Amino acid sequence: MRRLWPNSLVGQLLLIVALMLLVAQGVNSYLLYRGAQNQNLAEASTSAVTRIAFALERQSMNRRDDRGGAMAGRRGGRLKYSPESAVTEDMKRLPELEARAGQAFANMGIGFSDIRASAVRQLTTDMTGYAIGSNRGKWRDNPINRSMGGRALPLETKGFVIISAQQDDGQWISVASAVHERKPLLIRTLLFQTMIIYLLMMIPLILLGRYISRPLKTLTAKARSFQPGETQALAEQGPPDTRELIRAFNDMSGRVSNMLNEKNVMLGAIGHDLRTPLAALRVRVENVDDDIERGRMVAGIEDMDQMLDDILSLARLGRSTEPSDPVDIRSLIETVVDEFTDLGHDVHYQRGERQIAAVRETLIRRALRNLIGNSILYGKAADISVEKSGNKLMIIVDDDGPGIPEEKIDAMFEPFLRGEESRNRATGGSGLGLTLARAIARDHGGDIILSNRQEGGLRATLSLPV
C-alpha cells in the first residue's frame, strides 16, 4: 500500500481527489442503476395497466368474444381471469407500483377493490400464456417492420411485472409484462460521464499542483543546500501562501547568516584573548626550575590550548573557507597513518584501490586523527580499511579494545562525554574528538557510525559521498 501512496503533497492531493471522485461516481452509478431499474419496472407496469384498461373497455362495449381474445393473444398475450390473484403470498409485493396502478385506473374511471403488483424473474406455469412485451425485439427485427422504419432495440428481458386487479364481483384480472433492461446504453453513458468528470477535474488540479509544487521543490532544494553567508535570496513565486513561505525563508536565512557572522567575530575574539595569556603563561613556566613541575604545567597549558582549538573548530564548522577539492582518500589515509607510526603507535592500513572524493582535506584529516587517536587510546592499536558501498565511501577504523555498551553508543557523540569517566588526560581526551569528527563528516554529507565488533573491540565507520 505504501508503494502506491505518493510521497509528494501534490501527488497525495491528486490521489485523494481521484479516489473521492471514484467513490462519488460509484454512488452516482448505483443511484442511476437503481433509477433505471425503477423506470423499467414502471414502464412494464404501465403496459400491464394499459392492457387491463383496454380489455375492460372492450368488455364494456360487449366486444370481447373469442375472436377478440384471439386478436389479443396475437398482440402479445391474453388477460387471465381467475378467482385467485396471480400475485401469491410468497411473492414480494411492490406498494409503489400498486399505488401508481390504482391512481391510473382511477384517472380512467375504472374501479377495483384490490390491486396487487409483484416482480419475478421467471413466470409460473399458470402465467406463461399471459405475458406481454416479451417479443418486442423480435417484432421490431422483422424485415417488414424494419422496412417501415422500425429497428431492433438492444433490449434484454430481465423479468416480469405481474399486475393483478380484483373486480367488484371478486374475480381477479391478471397480466404479466416483460421488464427490459438497457445495460449497454447505461454503461456507455456512465463511462463517458466518468471520463468527462475526470478530465474536467483532474487536468486543472494537475496544473494547479505543478504551479504549487515547483516553488516548493525549489525551496526544498535551497534549504538542503543552504550555506550560511549566501547573499542571493530565493525568488518569490507561486500562490500567495507559497510566496509568504519563501519570503519567511529568505528572512530566516538572513538572520542565521548574521548570527553566524556575529558568532565568528566573537569566537575570533575569544580565541585571541585566551591564547594570548596562555602564550604568556607558557613563557613564564619555562622559568620554573623543577623539571617535573615544569613538565606538568606545560602539559596542562597544551591541553587547554588543544581543547580551545577543538571548541573553536567545532563552532566554526559550516563556515569553513577551505574549498572542497578532489582528493585521493588512499593517500590522505596514508599520510595520517604515517604520523601515528612515526610516533611509535601500532596502526595498520590495508591499502586498497585509489578512491577520489571531493572533500576539505584539512577537516577530513582531522576527523581521521580523532578516530585513530581514540582507537589507540582505548584499544592500543588501529586497523584501517576502505570500502565502497553505492555512492558512499566507507573508511573503517577497527580496534581491539573493550568496546562500548550498546546503550551508550549514541551518547558517545555528546560533547565532553568520554568512554573513560575520569578526567585524567592520560586516559582520555577532552570528550570533543567524536563530536568534532561526526560534525566534520556530516558537514561533508556523510556520517560516523560506531558499532561493537563480534570478535571484540569497536568499529568506527566514516562515510563520505563519492
Q: What would a concise description of this structure say?
A:
Strand 9 and strand 10 (about 390-400) form a beta hairpin. It contains eleven helices and twelve strands. Strands 1, 2, 3, 4 and 5 form a five-stranded mixed beta sheet that branches. The chain has a five-stranded mixed beta sheet with strand order 7-9-10-12-11. The chain has a two-stranded antiparallel ribbon with strand order 6-8.
Can you offer a commentary on this structure?
The chain has helices at residues 9-60, 66-74, 95-107, 136-140, 143-147, 183-224, 240-285, 291-316, 329-342, 361-379, 433-443, and strands at 80-82, 114-120, 131-132, 156-166, 172-181, 325-328, 346-349, 356-359, 381-389, 392-398, 447-452, 458-465. It has 466 residues and is α+β, with helices and mostly antiparallel strands. It has three domains: 27-187; 226-319, Helix Hairpins, CATH 1.10.287; 323-465, Histidine kinase-like ATPase, C-terminal domain (Heat Shock Protein 90). The strands form three sheets. Strands 1, 2, 3, 4 and 5 form a five-stranded mixed β-sheet that branches. A five-stranded mixed β-sheet has the order 7-9-10-12-11. Residues 63-77, 137-141, 144-153 and 422-427 have low confidence and may be disordered.
